[in-house]
């Protein structure tokens, strides 16, 4: 589901998705498998360059904050 949002690349939807992940990471990360998939494979793998180098500065900044404070 989140892969579709990333591929859609609408900055408002990406911002809402990142806010959701930021607010619920501790709950999701309580299960080790979810943490491995979300952080290891998605955020630091498939989605990393797309979000790290995003054209919208708000998305980039939010992603940087997510990496610093949640990962």
Structural commentary:
- The chain has about 70 residues and is an all-alpha fold.
- About 85% of the residues lie in helices and about 0% in strands.
- It is globular, with a radius of gyration of 11 Å.
Shape, per Cα inertia axes: globular
Distance between the termini: 21 Å
Helix content: over 70%
Q: Rounded to an integer, what's the Rg over CA atoms?
A: 11 Å
Number of helices: 5
What is the number of E strands? 0
Strand content: under 5%
What low-confidence regions span 5 or more consecutive residues with pLDDT below 50?
A: none
- Mean pLDDT level: 80
Q: Main β-sheet, in a few words?
A: none
The chain-level structural class is mainly alpha
**Helix and strand pattern:** HHHHH
SSE layout:
Blueprint lengths: L1 H7 L2 H18 L3 H15 L1 H5 L4 H14 L1
Features:
0% strand, single chain, globular, 5 helices, mainly alpha, 71 residues, 83% helix
Short structural summary:
The chain has 71 residues and is mainly α. It is 83% helix and 0% strand.
């Amino acid at each position: 589901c989140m892969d579709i949002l990333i591929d859609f690349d609408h900055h408002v939807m990406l911002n809402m998705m990142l806010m959701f992940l930021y607010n619920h990471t501790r709950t999701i990360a309580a299960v080790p498998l979810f943490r491995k998939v979300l952080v290891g494979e998605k955020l630091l793998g498939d989605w990393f360059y797309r979000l790290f180098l995003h054209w919208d500065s708000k998305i980039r900044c939010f992603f940087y904050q997510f990496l610093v404070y949640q990962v």
